[in-house]
Design goal:
326 residues; alpha/beta; single chain; 14 helices; two-stranded antiparallel ribbon; 12 strands
Length: 326
């Protein structure tokens, strides 16, 4: 069974004006391109047509409108995803949308998503509100996710905490978000979050910003004696185990974010174990036609045993608290 773990939608209730055949691009406060709205985000029937054409059996739904957002928007996204599950049995599964910094009301919504809606995971952004994922303010969220057996899908933040250097050439979207994912991965591991929550599983989107191309350098900087940072309360911090232990045991990396380019997956496999990769398309943002998704599935399949793990074999690594197909 092929499951797409990086698959987007937008509830119609949150769209004031139907985009029709237009692309509506919004910009952040710094004037950087932020989000593209279009009709494919609103149409589950078109999504099913793409999935059928691409031999994708199921998709886990996340919405940018509800990621680290206010309570009302989160609930609308959650209820829309649950309705999609009911309307298309076995084809869609919902991610919980609950702001990790939202306090008791958002933790109550997270509980509803887990206990009543049966969602297997929750989606958040790689940074928010001037904070990064290792900030103490996130600690109750990590504890609750581990306690409930929910995996956490980390999507790149649409609005970066620091965006001045990305003020041209669409840099915030093309590379800024990828830097954010790489830094989020390092922060999660080196801050000891997985040591405090050893059964916590985090799915990093976009192959964690293409971290495989940087991981040799990241590993080298784990030698705090060599670099002179040992004993520094921030820069000298290390987890209890080797960096790659957490890559293999606490993290999954989805193949979305590279517009269906198989080369990105091949590069990832040089440094990341195939058992830590899961399939994702980023439909319908970075891919918007079924011929691209279909070719992406075929190319991953050509990777042999590694490709089979990515497409199907690793599904249960994330669906631990819910049987796929139920």
């Amino acid at each position: 069974m092929i499951v797409d773990f990086h698959h987007h939608y937008t509830p119609r209730a949150l769209v004031k004006n139907d985009p029709g055949d237009e692309l509506i691009l919004t910009y952040d406060e710094m004037g950087a391109p932020s989000y593209t709205m279009h009709k494919l985000l609103l149409n589950f029937d078109s999504t099913i047509e793409m999935m059928d054409a691409s031999n994708i059996d199921a998709a886990v739904l996340s919405s940018a409108a509800g990621m680290s957002s206010d309570l009302e928007r989160s609930k609308i996204c959650n209820d829309t995803a649950k309705q999609a599950e009911k309307d298309y049995p076995g084809r869609f599964y919902g991610f919980a949308h609950a702001n990790p910094l939202g306090g008791a009301e958002h933790m109550k919504e997270l509980a509803r998503c887990a206990d009543e809606l049966g969602f297997p995971g929750v989606t958040i952004t790689s940074e928010q509100d001037g904070l990064y994922l290792d900030a103490p303010e996130f600690n109750p969220f990590w504890a609750e996710c581990e306690r409930r057996g929910l995996f956490v899908f980390v999507h790149p933040a649409l609005a970066l905490n620091e965006s001045a250097q990305f003020n041209g050439f669409d840099l915030a979207r093309s590379v800024g978000r990828e830097f954010s994912l790489i830094m989020a991965t390092i922060r999660l591991i080196n801050s000891g979050i997985f040591d405090r929550h050893p059964s916590l599983i985090v799915q990093m989107s976009h192959l964690s910003g293409g971290i495989a191309s940087m991981i040799s350098r990241i590993r080298a900087y784990q030698d705090k004696v060599f670099w002179g940072t040992k004993g520094n309360p921030r820069h000298g911090m290390l987890p209890e185990k080797d960096f790659d232990y957490y890559i293999a045991n606490n993290m999954m990396f989805d193949t979305g974010g590279f517009c269906g380019a198989i080369e990105a997956v091949k590069i990832a496999l040089i440094e990341l174990p195939a058992s830590s990769l899961c399939f994702g398309t980023d439909w319908p943002q970075e891919i918007r036609t079924s011929d691209v998704t279909s070719n992406f599935v075929k190319e991953i399949g050509k990777l042999g045993a590694d490709g089979e793990k990515i497409l199907s074999g690793n599904v249960q690594n994330l669906f631990k608290n819910r049987s796929i197909g139920s």
